[in-house]
Amino acid sequence: MDNDPMGELKNVLKKGRGRSLIIIATLVVLLFAFKPWVQIGAGERGVVQNFGAVQDNVLNEGIHFKIPIVQTVILMDVKIQKAMTDAASSSSDLQDVDLSVALNYHIIPDKANLVYQTIGVEFKERIIDPAIQEVMKAVSARYTAEELITKRPAVSTEMQEALTSRLLASNISVDAFSIISFSFSQTFTDAIEAKQTAEQNALKAKRDLDRIRVEAEQTIAAATAEAEALRLQKMNISPDLIELRKIEANLKAIEKWNGILPEVTGAGAIPFIGVGDAIKNK
């Protein structure tokens, strides 16, 4: 039986190529099965664990390789998050106060491994909400109910500073804090409204009194000025001034006379103005 060296070589090559394809396919399957890489998305950090032990390094955004079976990566959201919380507390004058606040916060990115290690992924329920409740009660107890309204910016700032200090110890940063609303008992609300109404009425009464006082002062000043003017006029009156005024009046009458003497005579006749005086002067 003749041997065909070329045929045998082809068979060997075919078998070798088949094995290579099998090996490559097996590697591809294993690659996707064990997935030796991890993708960290925007606003996330990766916490590396070696057989469950949290490592010091924190993975940034992008693709990173990991050792299959040995390493696992936990994704932590480090974007700004919002928490809204309601709390019931008391003011320093023992008024019941219901508060509603909003808090913006985020995990400090390079401390994400510590947050996961000490708190876990449920840090809002375990740390954020209890901290807000405690701070709201502690701060509101230092103000009267009325001050909580009139000094709202100061109250909000004090709460934010207290929360910032408290949460920073847990590697959580506070970005913003705001008080959404205060609400009090209906009795206290009615008392505040009555007080404001009384203050407004008192202010209106004061304005009216001020207006009356100013008007009275103006009237007195006008009367005083008029009296002073009359006094000065009396001081300036003399016999010569009176005679001068009479002469001026006669001259005006002469200027208006048309040269015709009045025809009416008798006891009821009107005398010719200034004639007697003119004769005396002659």
TrEMBL record:
Pfam family, one: Band_7
InterPro entries: Band_7 (IPR001107), Band_7/SPFH_dom_sf (IPR036013), Prohibitin (IPR000163)
Localization terms from the record: Membrane
Membrane topology value: Single-pass membrane protein
GO cellular component entries: membrane
Keywords associated with the record: Coiled coil, Membrane, Transmembrane, Transmembrane helix
Coiled-coil residue windows: 195-233
TM ranges: 21-38
UniProt domain Band: residue ranges: 35-196
Name of the protein described by the UniProt record: Prohibitin family protein
Originating organism: Flagellimonas ochracea
